[in-house]
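Design request, tokens follow.
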């Protein structure tokens, strides 16, 4: 598809998505939501809603004179979203993050409180050359500190992908010192990495663990009672008591950490752990 073939401008698509998300998950949409979120006037916001209804999703919304806002119609079908609750929660998260920076910003969304794990973030001067080397496919020289080498050492890397594991950012790269692909946490680089003129010889397509797809099978902790297991299964929309997660083999450990399953030893309290890995033997190569 050519760039010119895409029918909706990016800025309009973002507005249409917000229209759909707010209407679906809050049950009432007004022009104020659009005005406050995008800094536009009421007339433009009204035009966006009408264009959404005319060209994007006819019949999705109805105007409720009593509520003085648009509500989802009975035949509502997501057109520019997937209709998932996490899309609304992401909007809440962005609203919270922006409000922390801009005190006067008010998008009219419910009060939220979001917990963040304290972490040291990488500096811009560290990230920029890593991004450049990744984008241009070039070798990178940097000083890197790890728990196994706390004194630090000079590394020559060939990075191919930046990854956010849900807790921190790392870069997936070929390490010349170790002769294999490894993950390097961005906050553990020191100084300014140097982008070398040489092109990388080890690409993403050569990274076996990156290109191998595996299935992670999660199930309720079998130490729980049948009723408790049923609650956990419902929490994760499990099918036949299991949740299948497709993942790159290189990212299996991170996915399990997000599920609270890091390490081979289960938590002593099943009410805390709640989940367990059903196919550990199948994934042992990648753990």
């Amino acid at each position: 598809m050519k760039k010119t073939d895409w029918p909706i401008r990016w800025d309009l698509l973002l507005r249409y998505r917000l229209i759909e998300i707010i209407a679906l998950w809050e049950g009432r949409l007004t022009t104020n939501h659009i005005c406050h979120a995008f800094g536009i006037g009421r007339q433009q916001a009204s035009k966006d809603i009408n264009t959404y209804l005319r060209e994007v999703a006819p019949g999705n919304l109805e105007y409720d004179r009593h509520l003085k806002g648009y509500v989802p119609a009975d035949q509502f079908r997501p057109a520019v979203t997937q209709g998932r609750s996490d899309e609304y929660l992401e909007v809440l998260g962005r609203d919270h993050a922006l409000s922390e920076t801009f005190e006067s910003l008010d998008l009219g969304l419910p009060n939220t409180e979001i917990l963040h794990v304290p972490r040291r973030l990488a500096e811009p001067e560290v990230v920029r050359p890593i991004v450049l080397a990744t984008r241009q496919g070039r070798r990178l020289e940097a000083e890197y500190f790890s728990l196994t080498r706390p004194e630090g050492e000079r590394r020559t890397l060939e990075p191919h992908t930046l990854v956010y594991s849900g807790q921190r950012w790392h870069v997936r790269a070929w390490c010349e010192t170790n002769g294999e692909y490894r993950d390097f946490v961005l906050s553990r680089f020191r100084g300014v990495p140097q982008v070398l003129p040489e092109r990388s010889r080890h690409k993403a397509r050569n990274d076996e663990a990156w290109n191998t797809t595996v299935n992670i099978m999660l199930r309720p902790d079998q130490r729980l009672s049948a009723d408790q297991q049923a609650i956990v299964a419902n929490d994760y929309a499990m099918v036949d008591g299991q949740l299948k997660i497709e993942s790159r083999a290189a990212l299996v450990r991170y996915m399990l950490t997000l599920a609270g399953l890091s390490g081979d030893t289960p938590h002593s309290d099943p009410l805390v752990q709640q989940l367990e890995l059903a196919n550990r033997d199948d994934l042992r190569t990648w753990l």
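Comment from the thread starter after seeing the answer: thanks! Residues 10-26 form the longest helix (17 residues).
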